[in-house]
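This is your field. Pick holes in the following sequence-structure pair:
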Amino acid sequence: MKRVIYLTALTALLLPAKTLAQRQAADTTLTRTVVVEQSYNPDILDASKVNVLPAVEPPAVSGRAVEYDTQAVPASEIPLGTMPSFSAPDKQPRGTRGYARFGMGNYGNLEGRAGYDWAISERDRLEVNFRTVGMNGDLTAKGFNASVERMDQLVYPIEMAPPPLPRMPGNKWGAYHYNTDADLRYTHSFRNADVYVGGNLGVRNFNLLSYPVNRKLKYTRVAGYAGIRSNNDNLSLHYSLEGGYRYFGRKDFPAEDELYLKAEATRKIVEEHRIGLGVSFAHYWYARERRRVDYPRQGFLTLNPHYLLAGEALHIRLGVNLDFGTYPGQKTHVSPDVKVQYTFADHYVAYAQATGRRNNYDYRRVEQYSPYITSGSYWWHAGYEQINASVGFKASPTNGLWFHLYGGYQQLKNDACAYLITRRDDNANSEDFMLYDVGLGTIDTHNSYAGAELRYSYKDKLTFSANGIYRNWAAKEHGDKASLYFKPKLELNFALEVRPIAPLSVTIGYQQITRKGIEGVADTDQAQTLAEVVSPVNNLHAGCNYELLKNVSIYARIRNILNRSYQYYEYYPAEKLNFIGGLSFRF
């Protein structure tokens, strides 16, 4: 055992020596390269050329609390459809706001017109208009000095003894007639409504056919009004309200005063459906006449409830007119207010309608019917259109062309008509009568009618229009044929405007009104005289306008080129061949 220990120790001592005595071979497979670099930190002498940006801190955004409108709104209040594309509007050049015209012609004809639309601001507007027309010349009163049968004898509204009636030498009537009107209107626009106030002043001076030249009449008209109307189509409630006062003075007659009020409101229900109510009221009173003959007070109230459906193609109006008299003895009337209209293919419209209304025979309406009406016991009575039902078709098949065909039936209660009142001339033969007066009467009438309208325009070079209507009149009582003599049986109108060069426009037109006439009257001298009195209107007319300078034009018109004898107002002759010419200005 000891021997093993000694051998082990000896081996440990001899092993290091043997290791150191070995010779190592060179390493040919690995080459190590060490590179030592010195740090580079240069000094920049021109340090001012170095731009050093400051540190930028991002902005701090503080969020806000979002508030939502939780109020309930009807679905009908929410506009439908997508938002339209935006395009800048074309700026149009500013047009002229004022105009003036003055002309003169034969028969002492004169014409003067002027107006100005003043835009005070974006919300304020003032409109002023003036018009005067007149004539002074000799007219031929054909047939009025002949034997004329008394058609009717009315009760005069005032007790007066008619003066002696002179004969007109050669049937010549020295007529004159001047009518002047001036209007003023101011409008202020709010966000959702327009408020307006205005007034009118008018004077008419003229003479009568059956009296000497000193038998004159004068009408004076004064009116003032104020109102408000909505101007926002997006509102669910549309409304209008107007009230005013009117005065009408007539020489030798009691003055007429009127207070009136008219209002209308429509409310959207859902989508295209609306309901509405119209109200109108008029109250008349008359000054006490010096002969102590009073005209009665009168008042009229009209209610018009209605329903509207305004769809893209179908339009329906269902309503009724309820007319009440506010004084004893005045009757209540009911008439329809219905219309159905359908649009197809975007260019064609078919419709059917039935309407009715009250016609108050106040001084203003009598003047529109005929200013020569000087008597009649029916002025404070009202006429009534009981029904006016019609069907029609409108179309515009191509650009520039439009036409309208229609037909219907009309029934009138207390329809206005003029009566020739005659008086015996004590200095003449027993069968000679002189024209004394023209009175207003009323009668129940009805008629069926058919008509057509046509219009065509080609750019700004040519415009043609034509319209006509035929009526078949009848009276409720067969003995009242005289009241139908002047009723229009056939009315025709044609007009053509041509612009051959830019500054020149030429127009030519024709108007014909054929009267109901004296059908059924025996062929006598009396019938021939009446036939001359109610002869048809044949008015061929022409005119031209030439722009001499910018906004300065010369114009001329000629009427009754055929030189016919006819009457627009019952029993009063119109001018034969007449003309007028003058200058017009725009500014």
